[in-house]
Amino acid sequence: MAKTYKPGEEAPRSGQYEMVGPRGGRLGTERTVVRGEPLPPTKGPGQSYILTDPTKTK
Asked: I need a labelling partner for 5 at 20 to 30 A (CA). Which of 21, 34, 48, 58 fits?
């Protein structure tokens, strides 16, 4: 299973983060976050994020 990140936690990499439910089910909602910025609030309690598409670097 992919590492999950909590809302407000600093993003370790830039890219697309998808919301997941409390039991790990994907919710289909993605947010673009830049490395070092806090992850935005989720829609419900117990939800978190997984990195689904990291930004490519040269």
From this structure: 58
Low-confidence ranges of the chain (pLDDT < 70): 1, 58
Structural domain span for residue 32:
4-53
The answer to whether residue 58 is domain-embedded is: no
Q: How far is CA 12 from CA 6, 28, 29, in A?
A: 12, 21, 19
Full-model pTM: 0.90
How many domains does the chain fold into?
A: 1
Asked if residue 10 is part of any domain, the answer here is yes
Q: Do residues 38 and 5 make contact, with C-beta atoms less than 8 angstroms apart?
A: no
